[in-house]
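Re: flavin-adenine dinucleotide structure - here you go.
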Amino acid sequence: MSKINIIGSGFSGLAAAAYLAKQGNTVTVLEKNAHIGGRARAFEENGFMFDMGPSWYWMPDAFETFFNNFGKTTSDYYDLKKLDPGFQIFFGKGEVIQIPDNKEELLELFESIEKGSGDKLTTFLKEGEFKYRVGMQKLAYKPALSWLEFANYEVINGAIKSHMFRSIKNYVRSFFKDERLVAIMEFPVLFLGARPKNIPALYSLMNYAALELGTFYPMGGMRKITEGMQQLAMEMGVDIITNCEVNKINATHKLVSSVNTSQGEFACDALLATGDYHHIEQKLLDPEFRNYKTGYWDKKTLAPSCLIFYVGVSKKIKKLIHHNLFFDRDFEKHSFEIYDEPQWPSDPLFYVCCPSKTDESVAPIGMENLFILIPIAPGLNDTNELRESYYTKVMERLEKECDDSINAHVIYKKRYCVNDFVTDYNAFKGNAYGLANTLSQTAVFKPSIRNKHLKNLFYAGQLTVPGPGVPPALISGKISAQQTINYLKKTNHEALV
Ligand SMILES: Cc1cc2nc3c(=O)[nH]c(=O)nc-3n(C[C@H](O)[C@H](O)[C@H](O)COP(=O)(O)OP(=O)(O)OC[C@H]3O[C@@H](n4cnc5c(N)ncnc54)[C@H](O)[C@@H]3O)c2cc1C
């Protein structure tokens, strides 16, 4: 029986643990924090249950596939609810557009904003569906160790038809002129960590996911997913050890032999590292075993960090729904301040998740649970004064757009920003979402999931393939587990079934 250690209990670590345990291996997950889930942890305070990270449950098939791989289904672990409307956007001056779940209503909405755009949306989503099938169900599952993996007609043809070499900005604008429609179509790629002009149009697959497949919510919160994965992994014998920070990877004869942690030394036949790649390489490995030097990381484009406020409000807020985007300011300017000349944004867009609109269990009765997020550049100087000044700014705008008094009813508030990402997750420059999905950081151009010097060291998570986001993290765990299994098979480790 092979002994495999996994660093990190985020989505990718838990997924990898389950796949490796299913093959009969002895799997131990070592997690530095007190709770599992990584960036998707949750905490409870004053009767409010806050999800700390992801809040958009898109691409339900990715979650279903994961649980199906173990003879289970998502409903064995949590109840999914489809949101309708999926989300709403505040454009300022009282204008709010709600995105209906129903396709007919969606087409009518587009048509009412810009004549002819209903038909265009149909074409756009059809192309998005094709890209989704190629991108999420084929390309995303490649370990991207060599371009040869992509050298077959179906994949190349798919990549070309998927507009890999055209920007999403240009692509969206070839369909829609109205700035509000452009904003609706460009917003999902903000998750990918770059300006729309630098993101391949392949990622209009995100529009298909958002507008056609729909937006879901696991009742009880996003933590229900990681709790379900934890349960599944533990049922297969995985040992998950929290408060256990790995501080050194020990290697001899081109192989990892063990890791040193805050709870002692753990020997292994293979190691799968899902903490932030930069941290694993630069802090835990001796220089001769690193895949990349410091200069490599300096040149990488990171996805944004963010400033988050977890807020408990002692009353209901009528104008909010579950997902609310505040696009009442200049999107270009905010993007420029994140990506081109990183600085604290002068007048940022922001997002408010209010899960208590859907789920009574996340706030005391009659109250609201708010998660307010402002995307910012990674690596910014982060102080409490700055955080508070942005709280004041966005709260004023929130009150104005909702035409409601909110701040006076806040009974709980926690701020979270760059320094917390570094402290809690060892995040490079305090990034929230990993590496940006630009063309030059796609597939083989991403940090490799295999270590070149140590044959039994593999990486997974949002800084390697396929990229940032929960569904990609699930896929990353699977691909990396497969690489580990291939390695163990080659070296004839026994108990692989
Ligand atoms: C605020 C926010 C909002 C987001 N919103 C969405 C969304 O709505 N939808 C979506 O799909 N995605 C969203 N994402 C992205 C998504 O959450 C991540 O891509 C995904 O959770 C990453 O999982 P992971 O396993 O790669 O990494 P992580 O979750 O970071 O897991 C890595 C784990 O490794 C641990 N670790 C690090 N170093 C060590 C060490 N030395 N020893 C032991 N353990 C260590 C960390 O503590 C952590 O638990 C969001 C992310 C953030 C931060």
